[in-house]
Amino acid sequence: MLLSLLLQEGPADTTSYMIAGYAVIFGVMLLYLISLMVRQRNLQKDLEVLEEIQSDQE
Amino acid sequence: MNSKPRLLTFLDVVTVILLLVATYMVFFYAPQEAVMGDVQRVFYFHVAAGWVGMLGFIGAGVSGIIYLIKKDRKWDIVGLAAVEIGIVFILINIVTGSIWARPIWNTWWTWDPRLTTATVMLLIYLAYLMLRQGIEDPDRRARFGAVYAIIGSLSVPLTYFSARIFRTIHPIVIGSGDPSATGSFDMTTLMTRTFMFSLFTFTFIFITLFWHRIRLGQKADQVEQLRLKTME
What we know:
The complex is a heterodimer. Chain A is mostly helical. Chain A has helices at residues 2-7, 15-57.
């Protein structure tokens, strides 16, 4: 494969692979950021409920 | 703990700016590679993601050692945060490597020493997350996590040096690699600058995400403690 790349005149047309690569990079990072925010929000809700239960018990 | 520190907000802003600049450099500052074409641009963030992943796993090993010495659960929270970020970035590293390999090696995947050790490393830490889930006692879980992370961190040097020790087709851009490596290239000055800036940017991304993930872990610990207290 590399030989055929070397024998060609200009650079290989691999733009679509580059786009796919960066879509994965930014996509995964974005998903991770969203997961952090969702978990933070859910934990905050849990914390509020638990604090309420505890104050009721007291 | 609930209010976000100003320094963290500052770090958020700096990290976003750095990422924008790094992205600009990758697409517009660095020249197109003469043989591989545009897909070579994946290399800048591919290596940087690998760097962050390894940083995370080494960080988890160090946190594990500190936990075993101090027996303070905050180091378990730090270790878990490091592992989680490590997994995210090693996943990016492996998938982008596969995308690069398709036009260059003419295959999405090959069981090359570097690819294999990186995959084993990822599986080791995925197992770490799954096994932790099965332990209810927080102290036992932390002790297990610490020992596991210390042993697991041995996979980091093994992965890093695999392409230097074993016969491999994986290119080594920094230092000398196997002459049979496919897809090697010489970096021009502009490429080197872009590469170094990408590494710098991803180090910032790691620090920022790490801080956010530790804060999340602290909150999860707070919830767990309160839940146990409520159930008593």
